[in-house]
Amino acid sequence: MAKKKSISRQVLLKAVIEKVAYEKEQNENDMRMEMIISKNILVMEEMTKTIIRLENLLVDLMEE
Q1: What is the DSSP-derived secondary structure letter of residue 46?
Q2: Backbone angles phi, psi at 5, to 5 degrees
Q3: pTM score, whole prediction
Q4: Helix (H) / strand (E) containing 7
């Protein structure tokens, strides 16, 4: 593989080791990000419902 890439075995092994070492951390970061996004979606949905209720209330008050 190193020969195909025209690099030394040491450079190739170092790259492989670094990839493996950071893979777990990257997966954890991805999972955290997905949780944050999911929570944000829920909050945005609740805010949308609240805004709709407020709009309806304003319409009702303006009609009176």
Answers
A1: H
A2: -90, 0
A3: 0.60
A4: none
